[in-house]
Design brief:
Elements: H1 2-29, E1 35-39, H2 44-47, E2 54-56, E3 63-67, H3 73-83, E4 90-95, E5 98-103, H4 106-119, E6 126-135, E7 145-149, E8 154-159, E9 165-171, E10 175-183, E11 189-191, E12 195-197, E13 203-210
Parallel strand pairs: 6-13
Antiparallel strand pairs: 1-13, 2-3, 3-5, 4-5, 6-9, 7-8, 7-10, 10-11, 10-12
Helix pairs in contact: 3-4
Length: 214
Amino acid sequence: MLGFRFSLKSLLGLFVVVAIAIVLTTQWRYRGRLTTYFLDPSSTEAKALLASPLLAGDEVLPTAEYRANYRDVRWLFSKAEDSVALSGGLQADFDNDRVVIRTSEPDDLKQLILKMSEADRLEEDHGVIRGIAVDENDHPVANLPVDLLGPTQCLNAYLTRPDGSFSVPVEFTPSDDYTLRFRRSYAETYQTMPFSLGKSKREVVVRVVIPQKG
């Protein structure tokens, strides 16, 4: 009986040693990574980061700004343009994940925005990594390049918005080895902790803390 007790105690001690070794190895592997909080996509905090269309009331022509949440904004606009029978002129200016649309007819503008909103959703092998970047004082970090690293990469395509939020849509290869990279410059970059993308996890929402410059 005493021998059994000693063996059980030794086994428990071995488990503790292995667990500590795993923790230390993980900490060493991911040293220098950004503080990364993963949010539930259905949570109030995550939903508050979704952008909504904005109508401009001080423009000569009917004008609206649309920021894409789940899909590429150029794809959304092209799809909407193909499905709306325009009765007047149209101008579209793209920037980051945003398009500013001007039309000569208010109804055309409303229909375009409606069609884009309807198509801005996840389907098939498309996913999105979205969230917000803040500094150590909880202030938003704007205009920061955001790259997706992993089996499927998305480089030099997206920036954080003025409020620090961002959205990176992607047609992905399933993997547990994705990260986001934020760049102040090519010499000053930061990576998040790793995350998974797959058919059962197509939306990842993160809150990341960017070290203050200098």
